[in-house]
């Protein structure tokens, strides 16, 4: 399926008032967690200057690429300036410190020992800039036996129990998305904003230290650890089924959670006579599995579109199983103006806006990911 044209970023969009206008962020990060965090701050209006080594952020060349440009990197580095500095060079290190001296937020995701080895510890930087909010993102924390270990998305998913939990008794496998990296970025952006508030309250520099291990543990806990919430609870893990159900021409997902919704689902598939039998099953888990097993066969008799219309009529929570390309043409996605298009030397790129409205205003993308060192002259001449 071909996608409909996305809206094109315009001058009027660039003029929209953004809440972080006037704030300067220095990002010395690679991969996804730090860069995606900084992109969120850029979407909110901050000036973000990305500092890269002469070889560039390693993720520039990771995974799928178009005309030599890595797409994952492109999607995590919009609306930034790029300066190229060799921090092993005394002159470039001095330039880097000059950027930090006037920054509001400094984000780095190096291993814990790297900053100190460059003379960039928080103690040193807070003397250089008493109003600096430094956000340090590591894999496992600033200390402990794993502090110096490399950390990647799948390693964090495995260590926090997510892979085992998702397997539900089967063979563990990672997700096909960099979940830990992206969740870390979201929490890190939240921490950076809290750091600005703390700075204004105390009138002192703030050092925020977090790790992907800490963040994913926090993220997983509300539902994944429901059987470990009460310390003496030794019951077996219970998982609510989230089945994907086949239709005549594809798949759909159903999420009836109340008795009324379960009842209306059986009405929708033309099997109201099953209600009493299913209601008599005392074990909740068994009852839920029986319910979905029963409705699986009737669902194969009609198309996804036909079933979605029927479920909508009866107010049963249901949705399609879209391919990513189909998502782009979803009527609600188009209505929400989630995607825009931006010009780049390699061709037009699709970019997603920040997921909030500010007094009705959409914060759409303004500029594509920068070329390596593209802003050196502008930044250092300023």
Question: Which terms summarize this structure?
Answer:
382 residues, 6-stranded parallel sheet, single chain, 3-stranded mixed sheet, 2 domains, alpha/beta, globular, 16 strands, Rossmann fold, disordered N terminus
Describe this protein's structure.
40% of the residues lie in helices and 15% in strands. α2 (33-43) packs across α9. It has helices spanning 11-14, 33-43, 71-74, 90-101, 112-117, 122-128, 153-159, 162-167, 179-202, 212-224, 259-268, 275-279, 284-299, 304-313, 324-328, 331-335, 376-381, and strands at residues 7-8, 24-28, 47-52, 65-66, 69-70, 81-84, 105-108, 133-138, 206-211, 244-246, 251-254, 318-320, 339-342, 349-352, 357-358, 361-362. The chain is of the alpha/beta class. The two termini are 47 Å apart. The protein folds into two domains: 7-224 and 343-381, Crotonobetainyl-coa:carnitine coa-transferase, domain 1 (Rossmann fold, 3-Layer(aba) Sandwich); 251-320, no CATH class. The strands form five sheets. Strands 6-3-2-7-8-9 form a six-stranded parallel β-sheet, sandwiched between helices. Strands 1-13-14 form a three-stranded mixed β-sheet, with no helix packed on it.
- In the sheet with the most strands, the strands line up as 6-3-2-7-8-9
The CATH fourth-level homologous superfamily of the largest domain? Crotonobetainyl-coa:carnitine coa-transferase, domain 1
Strand content: 15-25%
CATH architecture of the largest domain: 3-Layer(aba) Sandwich
Total beta strands: 16
Q: Which CATH first-tier class of the largest domain would you pick?
A: Alpha Beta
Helix vs. strand class? alpha/beta
Number of helices: 17
- Characterize the largest beta sheet: strand count, sense, and whether it forms a barrel: 6 strands, parallel
CATH topology category name of the largest domain: Rossmann fold
Total number of domains: 2
Which percent range fits the helix content? 25-40%
Distance between the termini: 47 Å
Please mark out the parts with pLDDT under 50 across 5 or more consecutive residues, or reply none: 1-6
Overall 3D shape: globular
Nearest-integer average pLDDT: 92
């Amino acid at each position: 399926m071909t996608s409909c044209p996305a809206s094109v970023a315009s001058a009027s969009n660039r003029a929209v008032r953004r809440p972080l206008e006037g704030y300067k962020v220095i990002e010395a990060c690679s991969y996804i967690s730090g860069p995606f965090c900084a992109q969120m701050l850029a979407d909110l209006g901050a000036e973000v200057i990305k500092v890269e080594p002469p070889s560039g952020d390693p993720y520039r060349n990771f995974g799928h690429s178009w005309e030599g440009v890595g797409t994952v990197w492109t999607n995590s580095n919009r609306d930034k300036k790029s300066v190229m500095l060799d921090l092993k060079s005394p002159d470039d290190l001095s330039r880097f410190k000059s950027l930090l001296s006037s920054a509001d937020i400094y984000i780095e995701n190096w291993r814990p020992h790297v900053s100190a080895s460059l003379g960039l510890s928080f103690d040193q930087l807070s003397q250089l800039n008493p109003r600096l909010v430094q956000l340090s993102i590591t894999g496992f924390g600033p200390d402990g036996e794993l502090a110096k270990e490399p950390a990647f998305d799948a390693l964090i998913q495995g260590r926090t129990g997510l892979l085992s939990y998702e397997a539900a008794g089967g063979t563990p496998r990672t997700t096909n998305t960099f979940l830990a990296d992206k969740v870390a970025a979201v929490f890190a952006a939240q921490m950076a904003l809290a750091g600005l508030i703390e700075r204004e309250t105390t009138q002192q520099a703030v050092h925020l230290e977090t790790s992907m291990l800490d963040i994913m543990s926090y993220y997983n806990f509300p539902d994944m650890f429901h059987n470990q919430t009460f310390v003496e609870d030794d019951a077996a893990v219970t998982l609510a089924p989230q089945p994907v159900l086949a239709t005549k021409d594809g798949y759909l997902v159903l999420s009836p959670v109340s008795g009324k919704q379960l009842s209306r689902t059986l009405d929708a598939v033309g099997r109201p006579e099953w209600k009493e039998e299913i209601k008599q099953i005392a074990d909740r888990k068994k009852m839920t599995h029986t319910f979905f097993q029963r409705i699986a066969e009737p669902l194969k008799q009609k198309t996804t579109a036909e079933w979605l219309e029927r479920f909508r009529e009866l107010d049963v929570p249901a949705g399609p199983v879209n391919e990513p390309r189909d998502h782009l043409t979803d009527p609600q996605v188009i209505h929400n103006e989630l995607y825009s298009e931006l010009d780049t030397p390699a061709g037009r790129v699709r970019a997603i806006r920040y997921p909030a409205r500010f007094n009705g205003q959409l914060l759409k993308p303004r500029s594509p990911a920068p070329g390596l060192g593209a802003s050196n002259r502008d930044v250092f001449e300023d």
